[in-house]
Amino acid sequence: MKQPPALHDCRDAFVSTLEKLAQSNNNIVAVCNDSVGSSKLAGFSDKFPERLINVGIAEQNMVGVGAGLANGGKIPFVCAASCFLTGRALEQIKADIAYSQTNVKLCGISAGMAYGELGPTHHSIEDFAWIRVLPGIVVIAPADPAETSAAVKFAANHPGPVFLRLSRVGVPDIFESTHRFEMGKAACVREGSDITIIANGTLTHRALDGAELLAQHGIEARVLNMATVSPIDSSAIINAAKNTGAILTCEEHSVHAGLGSAVAEIVVQNCPVPMKILGVPGIFAPTGSANFLLDEFGMSAEGINDAGRKLVDKKRV
Q1: Which helix H or strand E contains 251, and what residues bound it?
Q2: Nearest alpha carbon to residue 289 among 210, 226, 202
Q3: Domain holding 257: CATH number?
């Protein structure tokens, strides 16, 4: 009997990579909002006690501190629960980070519905929408530990603002440890010619599982891991529309203004094809574990399979 793959918390890859980078670069600092535990920064604090700034529960001030540190030549990784980082400090992110093109790395921890049992106040299913509309911020949602590590390395070397969307929900390995992150480039993790499934973060491995079920029905699905939501890989999306004729997107986010909307903006202007956006359907997601909620909103392997089969049928009409 096939054993299920081991699951990993991408926060572990995030902090281990950050600590390694900080050992060779004294300008790397961390800023948090009384979230040393949830951001897993205890080890960083032990190794670099003078390079961790904990501002307490003051997210707007935290972003401002990060901007000040960047203006002083530091490379701040500003870490907080994504729901509070993006919701409470959006004005500061807009004015102090995006408008000023300040070299701050915003790290939205426990994004999506990772705080499931804490309910709608702690779900972060609007962060893609809020951040991707701001010019000049690179928005990244890595799919596994290897991509998380590669994205942190990229962020540290990128001369401008970055938003890293990190979950605490366990995911299997998808990429090799040598995986290299490329800004604005999708990674094709499964070839197929009948439909394209586009996902990122916690949904990429579910998209792959859904594609395996589609194959049992004679439907070969291409799966694109769209780690960068902004800037998005327009070429990969247009090629997918032209070559497979249907696109299904999956995201741990509202169906409004997130990954699916970003893909649709490209599709409708370049190569309109049948398309379906899977996500939280424009409601406040209720209380429940992240995996339970994803299943309930049609993002289990079976749900992705069902949505894909319907799209292919629509394409064939």
Answers
A1: strand 247-254
A2: 202
A3: 3.40.50.920
Position 1 scores a pLDDT of 61
Domain count, the chain: 2
Looking at the fold, whether 133 and 20 belong to one and the same domain comes out as yes
In this structure, the chain runs to a length of: 317
In a domain, 157, yes or no: yes
- Whether residue 277 is contained in a domain is answered as yes
Residues with catalytic annotation? 59
Letter for the amino acid at 9? D
Q: Check whether residue 67 and residue 115 sit in a common domain.
A: yes
On whether both 23 and 156 belong to a single domain, the answer is: yes
pLDDT digits (tens, 9 = 90+) for 220-243: 999 999 999 999 999 999 999 999
Strand order in the sheet with 195-199: 187-190, 221-225, 195-199, 247-254, 275-280
187-205 in b/e form (b: 16+ CB < 10 A) is bebbebebbbbbbbbbbbb
104 pLDDT above the threshold of 70: yes
The DSSP string of 24-87 is: H-TTEEEEESS-TTTTT-HHHHHH-GGGEEE--S-HHHHHHHHHHHHHTT-EEEEEEEHHHHHH
Q: What was the pLDDT predicted at 316?
A: 80
- pTM (2 decimals)? 0.97
Give the residue numbers spanning the domain of 42. 10-165
**Crossing angle between the packed helical segments 204-215 and 301-316, to the nearest 10 degrees:** 60
Residue 240 sits in the same domain as residue 160: no
**CATH number of the domain that 71 lies in?**
3.40.50.970
Element (DSSP H or E) covering residue 206: helix 204-215
Q: Phi first, then psi: give them for residue 275, nearest 5 degrees.
A: -145, 145
One-letter identity of residue 122: H
The answer to whether 117 and 279 are in contact (CB under 8 A) is no
Gyration radius (Cα) of the chain, Å: 19
pLDDT in tens, 17-75: 999 999 999 999 999 999 999 999 999 999 999 999 999 999 999 999 999 999 999 99
Q: What is the pLDDT of residue 247?
A: 98
